[in-house]
Specification:
The chain has one domain: 3-Layer(aba) Sandwich (Oxidized Rhodanese, domain 1). The chain has four helices and five strands, in the order βαβαββαβα. The radius of gyration is 13 Å and the shape is globular.
Length: 107
Amino acid sequence: MTTVEIDVRDLDRLRRSGETVTVLDVREPWELELCSIEGSRALPLDTIPEHLEELPREGLLVVVCHHGVRSARAAAWLRARGFDNVVNLAGGIDAWAREIEPSMRIY
């Protein structure tokens, strides 16, 4: 399975430009309580299959987790099911916090 990635700076630029971008956060609820990207949709990794029909097939679908490992797995799984619009956020929320939103909590 192939995973396509986007870095945090490109995602930030796309979001600021008004592009249609859905950020899908696949972390666990306790992680979401610590920090999240504003406007992201929370869907824990193991619940994705039961919510597949709710995910957008138009616009960019960016999957995020803590460091990018779980989200890479989720993005590859979604691509294998026909989601050509899905990419993984390289470095995850940790990279987002360090490079884009330095006031965000890091864990």
